[in-house]
Write a structure and sequence with these properties.
By secondary structure, the protein is of the alpha+beta class. It contains six helices and twelve strands. The chain starts with a strand and ends with a strand.
Amino acid sequence: MEAELYKELNEKDRSAVQELVKECNLSDQTDYDPDLDGDFYYIIRNDDKEESGVDSALFSVLSGYLLGETIEGKQVLEVEAFTHPKMRDLGFFTICYNSLKDDFRNYRIKFMIKSPLSAKEDPEYDHISFETDHQDDVDSDGSGDESSDMKLKTAVPFISPDTYETLCALDAVHLYDELFMVKELPVSISDPGDGLCNQFGEVHLSGYSKDTLYLYGLLVYDKYLGQGHGRELMEAVENYNSKGPYNKILLQVTSSNTIAYKLYQKLGYKETERIIYFLV
């Protein structure tokens, strides 16, 4: 059985890919976008539904994206992979991966895996854990009382693609986690935009939806780090005295930026989504 390579999908194949992603989302309690918009696709078809006992048109799909970045002088591909829940641990993901490596021999591969939206306390989703190293080079600061050996623990749910053991066999290395966090404000505000930047740092926002602001930048200048200015900038946003339609703030932070993460956590931001990145 081989993985077929496509640069574009026709309407029938796109519908089949969407069906497979939805099936995986339902099984794994994830929220991958079914409308994959990759630069290329590797597909394994279910050519004999009676023999396989699976109604889906596809067994597996791997979607690849050219990121336009380099690691150690090599271009990077970002990959999402999906295998039908009833056909896992049969090597379909490995077939797709091997085809990818044959066609892109001088590239680094970055795997993107989403954490389940629920059932995070289920031991099945928590059987692998590790800690990220503390980094001194961060973009924002909290109150200045954080321990130098502070680490952010990460629990990794390997349901799709395949298993943790499969990624280990590929010598995949954990890079970081990307966390999406949200806080509901007691009073609705308007969009401050860039208007709250000051001599200590910068904070940048824009409208995300009809009731949510997106924080796309928080920076405390180097000489003011560790003095609580990150917290002051965030509190200035939340207490912005101009009324408007926004009662939520959404932001992204990486697991390596422990100081920023701890600041957002102390301010009451809650994790809503986690994306885990591995590199081969």
